[in-house]
Predict the 3D structure of the following.
Amino acid sequence: MVVAVGGRRRARVLAPPGVPAALLPVAALAAGPARAQEPAPGAGLTYHGYAVLDGGRVDVRLTPRDHGPSAVPDTTVRLRWLLPLARRAQPLPAGCARTGERDVMCRTGALDADGWGRELALGVWLRGRPAEVTPTVDMVWAAGAVDRGRGNVRQRPLVPATGDTYSF
């Protein structure tokens, strides 16, 4: 969106619904609007990883991948649990923010076309001691890239409280 302020044109970039502005890269905030005639780059985003549930704590490690055809300058992944997160303070990795009672969003960084991103390691405590969890792991922002195969972006692994590793 471009607005005129005091006779000067200024660009303002709005975060997509549900994505805190703090999780957007500074370059996106300063870049201004995309030109209407430029087609959105295509990307094939997936997340691969594993989760472990033991004693009410869920540890998740995931790595984003862009199957191409275009690189993506930044992405944000959301991890959502059916149970609320514990009320106590929970340290989160850099680039992550608690965005609701059950949600954490994390920037996963730039992805080269047909490339892997950096691994994200996150551990959170849930309220109570659940016998199992089914976290939803999905991409919520991809810096304007369009993923035409959105069926593989969201995953919901079943993770029993066995202390074992469950892949997704």
Q: What stands out?
A: DSSP finds one helix and 13 strands in the chain. The longest strand covers residues 45-54. Confidence is low (pLDDT under 50) at residues 1-14, 26-37.
